[in-house]
Amino acid sequence: MGVAKTLKFIDRGSAENITRYLELLQVLVTRNLKVRYRGSILGVYWSLLNPLLMTGGYTAIFGMAFTSYYHNSLFKYMLEVFVGLVTINFFSASTTQALPSVVGNGALLNKIRLPVSVFPMSMIVANMFQFASGSLPLLTLATLVTSKSLLNVLALLLPLISLACLCTGIAFVVSAMFVFFRDLPYFYELVVSVLWFGSPIFYPAAIVPANIRPFLVFNPIAMIIESIRQIALSGHPPNFALIGGSFLSSLVVLAVGWKLFYSWQHQFMDLL
Fold it and tell me: DSSP character for 79?
């Protein structure tokens, strides 16, 4: 079913109907991916090439300086950096792309009655598909080789669900705020940069000063990165306390994000 036919179908029915919502979501995600990779040689695998190249760069620059924190293993440092990069890249790409999604579809929303939330959601789901096609197979293989446990492989999905929930909550907030504040992309770029350098991605958390380290608890990305690393790279059974902590914080962000989006959306049409 094409985009136009689906939109008319949604408009004739009820936007609250979950089946129709999912149909519209599927159409928007498919359109997003086709436009994004039209004429591309590698397609979704471009999202994997970026963290691989950056992992090589960080390893060449910082690898020897930090190997003592990773049992003197340069390979282990590379894996730790790769996990951190694919996690923060997913967060950055999905939320940044979701930010203009409501405003960018303002003309469509003024013509057809649609569930506004489907637009930021479509960006998150498109990036989830991209992640599942590119980075997830490598993470799964690394987990299986390191832990030799199917439990760890299955548990790997839990922090990834937390990551998706966190990104969805942030996407709701930033896409709604952009309707009111058109300078938001510049500010949000700074926020993402702070989260990037404030998360132990290419450096070990152990080098963070003791008086600053407690503040890492308030960085939900850092907790998710550590949870994925613990499951995929430690060789130990999953730490469900760490998984639970990251999942709880992500659910809080999701709930707050949806509440704000829902409470603000009645003002959107006057500003689009």
Answer: H
